[in-house]
Design brief:
- The chain contains twelve helices and 14 strands.
- The chain has about 375 residues and is an alpha+beta fold.
- An eight-stranded mixed sheet has the order 1-2-10-7-12-5-4-3. The protein has a four-stranded antiparallel sheet with strand order 6-11-8-9. The chain has a two-stranded antiparallel ribbon with strand order 13-14.
- The N and C termini lie far apart (about 55 Å).
Length: about 375
């Protein structure tokens, strides 16, 4: 590539990342409501500033978490494996997914987080003491966002969404992910690590040799609120078909639309697929996520305002428990919402799949007859 004058250089990914909506929560309510609505429709993802969540609690969780992850493996393992709460290392979920990280999964319901971690380990009990205050604040923030969405969508009942999260039985989850620093040595020794020296406009979308911290997936819940330290790696997949790296900013919170929100809005919002590539820093990345979920028995189906004769319902009613079970029975990247489509799509082999499996042929025939 020839040398270009600086004003003509277009770092495409930096460009795309700068278009990702950043919403200032202290602005006028009706403006914020419209901005959130647009962001959920166009990206399924946005960043929040002036969100009002105290940095003091975040710093305490960060400090406790770093102390925990610095302990010897044998000690950390006493708090694992995560079933469903506790310490996990490299293994993600139950279906053989792995990533270059270690993590803590905790109950995200403020009233029971400490109680549930008590029998697991002393370390977890200490961390959950600080986490309970944070999840309380994040539950409040998630409810505010959902009320703003309800206003933007002109829903008859403006609390219909936030009630799902406010439920005392809410099945919210809290997670801290710790990505070890990238060892710089292989870059020199192993040409496969070319990613580090590549231009920013090609790296996220072309690279195949990068280190996967947390593989591509969508979150099954309603909304996820993510906060990280100043180490990058997080990317989300835009509706235009590009991976967009999000520059880390500890003062911002990232909001991610989950599968349940997609179903509630009858696909007006799409859950955002995202991943973490942990290959760019010699510092560890520490991220914390609050996954806002309803109670296990909550019934999910598209909101009546999202359905019309032009927009027929895309999902059969299901409970959050059923979707959660489906998520855990599939791989991390699985499209679990497809299992609840009111009219399953016809199966077609992709070019690599070649031969048509007789079972799928029979399935397609049945679908065509319905
Ligand atoms: C492979 C998996 C890990 C996961 C459960 C699943 O079977 C599919 C969804 C994954 C996910 C993504 C968002 C959250 O991090 C998480 C806790 C969740 O609710 O769904 C994880 C699950 C996990 O790590 O256990
Ligand atoms: O660690 C991160 O930054 C994101 C992880 C994530 O997407 C998840 O835990 O579901
Ligand atoms: Fe996620």
């Amino acid at each position: 590539m020839g040398v270009q004058p600086p004003n003509l250089v277009c770092k495409k990914e930096t460009c795309r990342a700068s278009k990702v909506p950043t919403i200032n929560l202290s602005m006028d309510r009706s403006v914020v409501s419209q901005q959130i609505l647009r962001a959920c429709e166009e990206y399924g993802f946005f960043k929040l500033i002036n969100h009002g969540v105290s940095n003091a609690i975040v710093s305490m969780i960060e400090e406790e978490s770093f102390d925990f992850f610095a302990k010897p493996a044998s000690e950390k393992q006493q708090a694992g494996p995560p079933n469903p709460f506790g310490y996990g290392c490299k293994t993600i979920g139950l279906q053989g997914d792995t990533g270059d990280l270690e993590y803590l999964l905790l109950e995200g319901n403020p009233s029971s987080v400490s109680q549930k971690s008590k029998p697991i380990s002393n370390d977890l009990q200490i961390i959950s003491g600080v986490v309970s205050e944070y999840v309380q604040a994040l539950r409040g923030l998630t409810c505010d966002i959902l009320d703003l969405v309800a206003e933007g969508l002109c829903l008859g009942d403006k609390s219909v969404l936030s009630r799902l999260i406010k439920d005392v039985e809410s099945d919210a989850v809290f997670r801290v992910n710790h990505y070890p620093p990238f060892d710089q040595t292989p870059k020199v020794l192993n040409p496969a690590h070319k990613f580090q020296t590549e231009d920013a406009d090609t790296s996220a979308n072309n690279d195949e040799s990068s280190r996967v911290g947390f593989g591509e997936h969508s979150d099954p819940q309603i909304l996820t609120i993510l906060r990280s330290n100043d180490v990058g790696g997080f990317q989300f997949f835009s509706q235009e078909g590009f991976w967009i790296p999000i520059p880390p900013n500890p003062a911002e919170l990232c909001v991610i639309v989950g599968d349940t929100f997609q179903a509630l809005t009858n696909d007006r919002f799409k859950s955002a697929r995202h991943r973490v590539l942990a290959n760019s820093s010699n510092k560890p990345r520490l991220s914390m996520m609050y996954f806002g979920a309803p109670s296990l028995n909550a019934r999910i189906c598209p909101l009546p305002e999202m359905v019309s004769s032009h927009n027929p319902t895309l999902y059969k009613p299901f409970t959050w428990c059923e979707l959660k079970k489906a998520a855990y029975s599939l791989r991390l990247a699985g499209q679990r919402l497809d299992l609840f489509n009111s009219k399953p799509k016809l199966w077609a082999p992709t070019p690599n799949e070649g031969m048509i499996d007789p079972i799928f042929e029979a399935w397609n025939l049945r679908l065509q007859k319905e």
